[in-house]
Amino acid sequence: MTYSSPATTPPGTAAAADRRRWLALAIVMTAAFMDLVDVTIVNIAIPSIQEDAGASYSQIQWITAGYALAFAAGLITGGRLGDIHGRKRMFLIGIAGFTLASALCGFAANPEMLVASRILQGAMAAMMVPQVLSIVHATFPAHERGKVFGLFGMIVGLGAVSGPLLGALLTQWNLFGLEWRPIFLINLPVGIAGLILGAKFISESKAPKALKLDLVGVVLVTLGLLMVLYPLTRGRELDWPLWGYAMMAGGLVVFGALIAYEKAKAAKDGSPLVELSLFKVKSFAAGIAVQTVFGVAMGIFFLVWTVYMQTGLGWSALRAGTTGVPFSIAVSVAAGMSVQKLVPRFGRKVLQAGALVMAAGVLLYIWEADRYGAGIASWQMALPLLVMGAGMGLIVAPLTDAILSDVPREHSGSASGLLNTVQQMGTALGLGLVSVVFFGMIDEKAAPSQVPTEIVGAFQNSLWWVVGVLVVIFLLMFALPGKPRQHVEGGGDEDAVADAAGELPEREAVLTS
């Protein structure tokens, strides 16, 4: 959108333009909220999906991991498509596809169709989400963006809290006898309204110097991850066949080919999917490892936590959803304190303290789960969840800035996109590992009366893995800058800032909630 001088713009025209851009903001924020809620809403409905649709353990994993994998694989490409062909155009394509995929999820006839629809939904989210902050950047002048990003932060927090609760309510209510399906169908009216209003009120924008697409890189990343994740999720059911190990080894070969191709791509036209030169920056390389491993921990915890409460303890979806409220509140409060007061004074030590605090909360959870067994109450979970949430809040809010603080500004967009991509890949890997650390501890042939006991034991085993991962995160954080500087929105290279904003780093805290 172009801005005219107040001296030459009639008052009525200026008011209309101002109203138009705030309507555009409301539309893209609503779409972002819809996506954020859709990530957090599914976990709480997993046991209902398993019971109603007859989904196997591996299919349950793919309902969540498939979305994360598709989102990760398409995130950078989605942002570049917006830069090349127009952010408005790709946003509308993304929201239309996301709405269609939501309908397919809601009307899925079997678990296989649901998994495929979730993968499509993740791919469409990767088309839609990167455009949100890019549109904001192109629509609002620098001096107004602080207020706009403040509003976006509120939306992020609201999505974190309301997603699980909304999923619990929609599942519990069993509207029209549809069981879990309304958690997807609720996107239809929102998506259709966003598509119609977005076409009318959002202004088109493109990047003056857009990077080229790297579709070969996308294919290699996706193929490599699939070759690792598929044997992980199916291995237990198939008694760990030899071809599974061979496929995982082949996945590592594919990642080696990806590195070689990306080097050649960078030398050829300077627009690789992965900017390998970034890994020469010690803090960024360590930060990528932190982000990936943190995604693994969260991928494990949130899926097994849901199954533990509903299948193991026999709780309703609503009770499970409300039990998680202390965690969400603690994350939000600690995140605000971390960025505003603690990190400016203590730097990296705050993030490391967060990892240790979160590990302490997980250990407390293990102790309570062991002490109270299947008779544990919601209020008894409140303390470990508060401690875990506080630790997570200390990490997620300042982590992006800590990782990007030593990255050259001309590469800030590529670094931000890669950061969010690997976090999603870590989540997908964690979800794949659930079959080993959780479902692998459950005997499917056990008597029904024994299943809750086995699930409680498997939950404790999974939490020990999470503790181990958090210790690794603590150690990796020693490579982060002692006092990360904060990048100021609107300063420096405008294209780099727009690219970085377009990758939506604020999303990471919600994807793990």
Automatic annotation (TrEMBL):
<feature type="transmembrane region" description="Helical">
    <location>
        <begin position="148"/>
        <end position="170"/>
    </location>
</feature>
<dbReference type="InterPro" id="IPR011701">
    <property type="entry name" value="MFS"/>
</dbReference>
<feature type="transmembrane region" description="Helical">
    <location>
        <begin position="283"/>
        <end position="305"/>
    </location>
</feature>
<feature type="transmembrane region" description="Helical">
    <location>
        <begin position="317"/>
        <end position="338"/>
    </location>
</feature>
<keyword id="KW-1133">Transmembrane helix</keyword>
<feature type="compositionally biased region" description="Basic and acidic residues">
    <location>
        <begin position="504"/>
        <end position="513"/>
    </location>
</feature>
<keyword id="KW-0046">Antibiotic resistance</keyword>
<feature type="transmembrane region" description="Helical">
    <location>
        <begin position="425"/>
        <end position="442"/>
    </location>
</feature>
<keyword id="KW-1003">Cell membrane</keyword>
<feature type="transmembrane region" description="Helical">
    <location>
        <begin position="350"/>
        <end position="367"/>
    </location>
</feature>
<dbReference type="Pfam" id="PF07690">
    <property type="entry name" value="MFS_1"/>
</dbReference>
<feature type="transmembrane region" description="Helical">
    <location>
        <begin position="90"/>
        <end position="109"/>
    </location>
</feature>
<feature type="transmembrane region" description="Helical">
    <location>
        <begin position="58"/>
        <end position="78"/>
    </location>
</feature>
<dbReference type="InterPro" id="IPR004638">
    <property type="entry name" value="EmrB-like"/>
</dbReference>
<dbReference type="InterPro" id="IPR036259">
    <property type="entry name" value="MFS_trans_sf"/>
</dbReference>
<keyword id="KW-0812">Transmembrane</keyword>
<keyword id="KW-0813">Transport</keyword>
<feature type="region of interest" description="Disordered">
    <location>
        <begin position="489"/>
        <end position="513"/>
    </location>
</feature>
<keyword id="KW-0472">Membrane</keyword>
<feature type="transmembrane region" description="Helical">
    <location>
        <begin position="462"/>
        <end position="480"/>
    </location>
</feature>
<feature type="transmembrane region" description="Helical">
    <location>
        <begin position="211"/>
        <end position="230"/>
    </location>
</feature>
<feature type="domain" description="Major facilitator superfamily (MFS) profile">
    <location>
        <begin position="24"/>
        <end position="485"/>
    </location>
</feature>
<feature type="transmembrane region" description="Helical">
    <location>
        <begin position="115"/>
        <end position="136"/>
    </location>
</feature>
<feature type="transmembrane region" description="Helical">
    <location>
        <begin position="182"/>
        <end position="199"/>
    </location>
</feature>
<dbReference type="InterPro" id="IPR020846">
    <property type="entry name" value="MFS_dom"/>
</dbReference>
<feature type="transmembrane region" description="Helical">
    <location>
        <begin position="379"/>
        <end position="404"/>
    </location>
</feature>
<feature type="transmembrane region" description="Helical">
    <location>
        <begin position="242"/>
        <end position="262"/>
    </location>
</feature>
<protein>
    <submittedName>
        <fullName>MFS transporter</fullName>
    </submittedName>
</protein>
<feature type="transmembrane region" description="Helical">
    <location>
        <begin position="22"/>
        <end position="46"/>
    </location>
</feature>
